[in-house]
Specification:
Layout: E1 3-13, E2 16-27, E3 30-35, H1 42-49, E4 57-62, E5 65-66, H2 72-78, E6 79-82, H3 94-99, H4 114-126, H5 142-155, E7 160-164, H6 172-187, E8 191-195, H7 199-205, E9 208-213, E10 216-221, H8 223-226, H9 229-236, E11 238-243, E12 246-252
Parallel strand pairs: 3-8, 3-9, 6-7, 7-8
Antiparallel strand pairs: 1-2, 1-4, 4-5, 9-10, 11-12
Helix pairs in contact: 4-5
Function: Part of the ABC transporter complex HmuTUV involved in hemin import. Responsible for energy coupling to the transport system.
InterPro entries: AAA+_ATPase (IPR003593), ABC_transporter-like_ATP-bd (IPR003439), ABC_transporter-like_CS (IPR017871), P-loop_NTPase (IPR027417)
Organism: Sphingomonas colocasiae
């Protein structure tokens, strides 16, 4: 079980305030989507949760401990992270790529234990990449690579998983596969936080949505409470057809924002 709490957390990149006094408490067993238009501060908020960017003010705590005061290894064992747009440069097999997820648990230069090997096997099974285990990761298709990288993240077996745009560049079938997997992880007791652009996927799979706009958290709640016609018009500048769980952008709003 894990609890991740933000208390008026703010992040500056240069002179720009990209996350502005965001407060939220995220608990185990929940799939949380962070949504909002480009430049809303979604990825910066996720990176602040991980302690990867310094806070300008406020705090982020993990089970009551300040993330900024924690050792990176301790954070990595509790918060598994799937960054967006990862490139693979080394010709590792998928099995060895997934095994890299165990690094937070290993001492320098140490070999994997039977428990580590079992964790890798579980991750391969959960991400459905057993058929890829002997393939060279740099030769995978986009969808195959996404599943392999997700398996590496699952191999950490952390109580929380944070994924930044895991659906990017995936076809609809693989998008469904990834969202279903993330929901299963939440149902199994993990805290899962993911940055999303697809509003229908957010409405269909997430338990809770954080809607960001220009660095500000403008709504926090159940998907259909957050994704109202008025908010979509005000935040995204669009009109949309809302037929739960379908959220279909129809046109740019012609009304003044």
């Amino acid at each position: 079980m894990v609890t991740l709490s933000l208390d008026a957390a703010s992040v500056r990149l240069g002179r720009r305030l990209v996350v502005d006094a965001v407060s939220a408490t995220l608990g185990a067993g929940t799939l949380v989507g962070i949504i909002g238009p480009n430049g809303a501060g979604k990825s910066s908020l996720l990176r602040a949760m991980l302690g990867l960017v310094p806070l300008a003010s406020g705090s982020v705590t993990l089970d009551g401990e300040s993330v900024s005061a924690m050792a990176r290894g301790a954070i990595a064992r509790k918060l598994a992270y799937l960054p967006q747009g990862q490139l693979l440069h080394w010709p590792l097999t998928v099995e060895r790529l997934v095994a890299l997820g165990r690094l937070p648990h290993l001492a320098p230069m140490s070999a994997m234990s039977p428990a580590d090997i079992d964790a890798v096997e579980r991750a391969i099974e959960r991400a459905d990449v057993a058929g890829l285990r002997g393939r060279v990761a740099t030769e995978l298709s986009g969808g195959e690579r996404a599943r392999a990288l997700l398996a590496r993240t699952l191999a950490v077996e952390a109580p929380a998983l944070l994924a930044d745009e895991p659906l990017a560049s995936l076809d609809p079938g693989h998008q469904i596969d990834v969202m279903a997997l993330l929901r299963r992880e939440a149902r199994a007791g993990a805290l899962v936080v993911t940055v999303l652009h697809d509003l229908t996927m957010a409405a269909r799979y997430c338990d809770r949505l954080l809607l960001m706009d220009r660095g500000v958290l403008v709504a926090d709640g159940a998907p259909l409470d957050v994704l109202t016609a008025e908010r979509l018009r005000r935040v995204y500048g669009i009109s949309a057809m809302i037929d739960p769980p379908m959220i279909v952008p129809v046109a740019r709003s012609l009304e003044p924002l």
